[in-house]
Design goal:
The chain is an alpha+beta fold. It has helices spanning 106-111, 150-163, 203-207, 217-229, 242-255, 275-284, 288-292; strands at residues 35-41, 44-52, 78-79, 83-84, 92-97, 100-104, 119-126, 136-144, 166-173, 176-185, 188-194. The chain has a domain at 28-54 and 112-196: Beta Barrel (Ku70, Chain: A, Domain 2), CATH 2.40.290. A hairpin with a 2-residue loop joins strand 9 (166-173) and strand 10. Helix 4 (217-229) packs parallel to helix 6 (275-284). The longest helix has 14 residues, at 150-163. The relative contact order is 0.14.
């Protein structure tokens, strides 16, 4: 008799297709992969490539100019003793003590090769809920390269769908070996770089010194009601970078010779002196902030949770 599979409840469960509200804005498909090699599960392998799943190309960026000529400033490598240096002549050095370096050549770096330089080998399968959110880093699309390994790619992806598990493997990328978490998404695979243990600060180091506070249960009850009032689905398109929009408006106005519009001053601080009063007034507030988080007609409304008494 086949054993029953335990149903996972993790938040990164593979989905055949994201909802319309959560679909990212259309972007031009990247043409250059950040890594190419083979995805391998035991003796099964297929050629794949990693592409960035996010883009900052639409961000407003500024160049430094000489105000007298409006010429763009060049950043010239400079030796503090001898002056400007050709960038092509520079070498890499690791500081072992103050102003003392070990010089490493590109040829020597090429000799430090790991199998993961060209192979993303799956080492383990885990439930996504067991990966602390502190470790999740950048997302990538892991796509097949050519037609030779399509069957192997499809088999690995479909098996992961059926088992509802996240695959872990390692790959050398950007001169570092990265731990990668791989999950099915639609017809393909998503890969997330995960931070290594030595990159993550122990939360206890930050939180252990916070004094214990005795909280009035009535205040918690009011705060829970405020949370219920503001519940809603995750709709990325409703959250826009307002600072970026203000920068673009500033640039547009200056380009047309119009005077910039000053931002409205911040509202004065509330004169509420009691935490209980603040909670009660927050519960009674009606306005745009409440309307902004109401579920849309298309969105799924989560079931009402019972509050613990």
């Amino acid at each position: 008799m086949a054993k029953a599979k335990k149903k996972s409840t993790h938040s990164r469960k593979p989905a055949a297709k994201a909802s319309n509200e959560n679909d990212p804005a259309p972007r031009k498909r990247p043409t250059r992969p950040v890594w190419q090699g083979n995805l391998r599960l035991s003796l099964v392998s297929c050629p794949v490539a990693l592409f960035n799943a996010t883009s900052r190309s639409s961000d407003v960026s500024f160049n430094l100019l000489n105000p007298e000529t409006n010429n763009r400033i060049r950043m010239v490598p400079t030796d503090p003793d001898t002056g400007p240096v050709e960038r092509s002549s520079l070498v890499k050095g690791y500081e072992i003590s103050k102003n003392h370096y070990v010089i490493v050549t590109n040829e020597e770096l090429d000799e430090v090769k790991l199998e993961t330089t060209h192979t993303l080998e799956i080492e383990r399968f885990v439930d996504a809920s067991t990966i602390d959110r502190l470790y999740w880093n950048d997302p990538y699309f892991l796509v097949p390269q050519g037609n030779d390994g399509l069957d192997a790619y499809a088999v690995i992806r479909e098996a992961m769908v059926q088992e509802d598990r996240i695959a872990l493997g390692r790959v050398v990328m950007h001169t570092r070996e990265r731990l990668m978490a791989i999950e099915p998404r639609g017809k393909g695979l998503l890969a997330y770089s995960l931070r290594m243990a030595n990159e993550v600060v122990n939360p206890a180091e930050m939180f252990d010194d916070i004094p214990n506070a005795k909280v009035d249960p009535r205040m918690i009850d009011i705060a829970q009601k405020i949370i219920e009032q503001q519940e809603g689905p995750f709709e990325p398109k409703t959250f826009k970078d307002r600072y970026e929009e203000a920068l673009r408006e500033l640039i547009r106005r200056k380009e047309k010779g119009e005077a910039p519009v000053a931002a409205e001053p911040a509202p004065p601080p509330s004169n509420v002196v009691s935490l209980m009063d603040a909670l009660q007034k927050s519960l009674q507030r009606k306005g745009a902030s409440s309307a902004a988080v109401k579920p849309s007609a298309k969105a799924h409304t989560p079931a009402k949770r019972k509050r613990a008494r």
